[in-house]
Amino acid sequence: MAIDKMKKVPVHEQEPEIRAHNFNEVRQGYSKEEAQLEAQRCLNCKVPKCKEGCPNQNNIPEFIAKLKEGDVEGAYRKLAERTSLPGVCGRVCDQPHQCEGKCVRGIKGEPVAIGMLERFVADAAAAEGYDALEKAPSNGRRVAVVGSGPAGLACAYKLALDGCDVTIFEAQHEAGGVLRYGIPEYRLPKETVVEHEVRNVTRVGVKIVTDCPIGKEHTIDDLFVQGFEAVFLGVGAWSPKHMGIPGEDAEGVYTSDKFLSIFLSGDVSEPEGLELKKHVENKDIVVVGGGNVAMDVARTAVRLGARVQVVYRRSEAELPARSDEIAHAKEEGVVFNLLTNPVAVVKDLKGGVCCVELVKMALGEPDESGRRRPREIKGSNFLMKCDAIVMALGTGVDPNIAEATKGLEIDKSNRIIVKNEDGLTSRPGVYAGGDDVTGPLTVVHAMGAGRRSAAAILEYLKSKKA
Ligand SMILES: Cc1cc2nc3c(=O)[nH]c(=O)nc-3n(C[C@H](O)[C@H](O)[C@H](O)COP(=O)(O)OP(=O)(O)OC[C@H]3O[C@@H](n4cnc5c(N)ncnc54)[C@H](O)[C@@H]3O)c2cc1C
Prior knowledge:
Blueprint: H1 16-19, H2 32-39, H3 49-52, H4 60-68, H5 72-80, H6 86-92, H7 99-102, H8 114-128, E1 142-146, H9 150-161, E2 165-169, H10 178-181, H11 190-203, E3 207-209, H12 220-225, E4 230-233, E5 239-240, E6 253-255, H13 256-264, H14 271-280, E7 284-288, H15 292-303, E8 307-311, H16 323-331, E9 335-337, E10 340-347, E11 353-366, E12 372-376, E13 382-385, E14 388-391, E15 395-396, H17 400-403, E16 430-432, H18 435-438, H19 443-463
Parallel strand pairs: 1-2, 1-4, 2-3, 4-16, 6-14, 7-8, 7-14, 8-9
Antiparallel strand pairs: 5-15, 10-11, 11-12, 11-13
Helix pairs in contact: 2-4, 2-8, 4-5, 4-8, 5-8, 6-8, 9-11, 9-19, 15-16
Bound molecules: flavin-adenine dinucleotide.
Flavin-adenine dinucleotide binds at residues 92-94, 146-152, 169-172, 177-178, 182-183, 213-215, 234-236, 260, 292-293, 296, 401, 434-436, 440-444, 446.
C-alpha cells in the first residue's frame, strides 16, 4: 500500500444508511499492515508533545516505536505500563484536542492517528490473549476504591501493580461506570472492549464488588473499620439536571442518563425498557441539548427507529459536541433546530407527552463562559409535535456521598474539594478524582486523576506504619 506521509492511513466506516439501523461499531479498526504503515509516520520526536497532550501521559512514542518494528505485544506492554483501558481510549478519547492535537506532524499535514494505533494494539492484545504485566511483590496494604469508572479502574490498576491489595466497591450491577452505562455500543462495544478491559484490572489482582453502593448504609468509616488504610472516591457525576419548565414531569420525558442506561443495562424486556421502546420505535423524539451526550442520545434513538430532532438554544458555532459527532448525527438523519429553546412540555389527556412548546432565541453579549448569551425572542413561540423528549442538559455530582461521609468538604455544585493534583480530600487517607472532582469531563482526564491519586496513596502508605 502506498503511503502519503502528510495524511493518516484512512479508516473504514459503515455507510450512514446502513449504520443508522444497527448498533455495530461505526468505525472499523486498522489491519496490521495499515497500523504499521501509520506507525511509520511517527517522527519519534526527542520531546514528545503527544505525551504531554495525554492527561494520563501514556507511553505514546514508545508503543508506536514497537509497532514500527512489528512487535505488537511489545507495543501493548508499553501501553499497559500506564493504562488498562487502551481499547476504550483508542475509541472514545478526544484525540484532536489531546495527544493528536500536539503531534508535530499535524503542523503541516494530518497528525499521526494515535487513537487508531492504540485501538489496533488493544484489539490485537485481546484477540491474542497477551499476558498481564508482572506485579510487584505484595506489600500487604489494603486500599478501597469506590466506583469502577475510568478514575477508579486507573487508580486500582496502578495500586495493584505496585503490590497493594485493592477492592473496588461499585454501586451498579456491572463495572465500568459511564463506559458501561453511558457511551453507546456503536462507539464502544461492551463485551469485547469494556468487559475485556475491566478484566485487565482483575487480572492484576483487583477485586470488584458490584451492587455495593458506599453511602448511607456502608460508609467510608466502615471501610476503615474493615481494615482498609486508604480510600479513593471515583463516584462520577450522575445527578441529572432538569430545565424546570411546566410539564417536565409528563410520561415520556427522560433524562439522558436514564435513556442511555436503560438500553445499556440490557433490560429492554423489563417494564422500564418496554415503556421506553414504546416511546421511541417509529416515533418523533426531541433531544434537548447540543453536547456529546445529546449526540449519543440522538444517534441511539435513530438506531431504535425514531425520527429525531435536536433542539439547542445557541447557534451551530457554539454546539459543544465534537464536530465529527455532529457530522455523524446529521448523516444519520438527525435534524438540528438551532437557536431554539423549550419553554413547556404539553401533555395529552393521559399525562403523556403530546408536544413541546419552543421559543426562538437570538445571541447577545458573551457570558462568563465566553459564549454569546442566548435570549428569547418574545412572541416567537411555536409547538413541535413529539412522542418523547430526552433532556441532555448535563449532570452533577450526587450530594449523598458527601452527606454520608464525615468531614468530606464539597463545593456548592457538590463536587468533592481536593487540596492538590493528587486528589487529597479534607479527610486524611481519603482521595478523590475524576468527574466527582472536576464535574463531567473526559475518560482520560478521569484516568489521569486516578493514577495520580494512586501514586499519592502509595506515598501515604509508606509514611504510615502498617
Ligand atoms: C453519554 C456519555 C458519553 C460520553 N462520551 C465520552 C467520550 O466519547 N469520550 C470521553 O473521553 N468522555 C466521554 N464521556 C465522559 C466520561 O465518560 C466521563 O468523564 C468519565 O466516565 C468519568 O469517569 P469517572 O470514573 O470519574 O466516573 P464514572 O464513569 O461516572 O464512574 C463512576 C462510578 O462510580 C459508581 N458509583 C457512584 N456512586 C457510588 C457509590 N455511592 N458507591 C459505589 N459506587 C458508586 C458509578 O456507578 C460508576 O460506576 C461521556 C459521558 C457520557 C455520560
